[in-house]
Amino acid sequence: PQPPAVQPVPVDSLSDRMAPVKSSSQTQQQLRTHPIQSKGPAQPAPLQGPAVQSKVYDRHGRIIPGVKQVGPNRVLDTRTGRYYDAVPSADGQQIKP
């Protein structure tokens, strides 16, 4: 048995054409018609202070020092390393009873 005959792949007539190159006069013409907008020197970003930690209250309504909010309705007691569920209160979070 002989292997099947292989047909040559037709060459696309568009593939061997090169894209037109813009001359420097065309580039200059385009720059003159579309100027770059000048907004002056860059403005410095406003300085932001440290983020204010929301207050966390215990089950009896007393502020607990060293406790951070780590997510929605979750707080971390950094002294013990324990996470607690919390509910939103007036100006912070309160640990669920």
Explain what you see.
- This protein has 97 residues and is α+β, with helices and mostly antiparallel strands.
- It has a domain at 55-95.
- 10% of the residues lie in helices and 24% in strands.
- Strands 1-5-4-3-2 form a five-stranded mixed β-sheet, with no helix packed on it.
- A hairpin with a 3-residue loop joins β4 and β5 (92-95).
What's this entry about, in short?
The chain is an alpha+beta fold.
List keywords for this structure.
97 residues; five-stranded mixed beta sheet; 1 helix; alpha+beta; 5 strands
Low-confidence stretches: none
Helix content range of the residues, please?
10-25%
Kindly, what is the distance between the CA atoms of the first and last residues, rounded to a whole number of angstroms?
Answer: 86 Å
Helix tally equals 1
Name the structural class: alpha+beta
Give the overall average pLDDT: 78
Strand order of the largest sheet: 1-5-4-3-2
Sheet with the most strands?
5 strands, mixed
Shape: elongated
* Rg for CA atoms: 34 Å
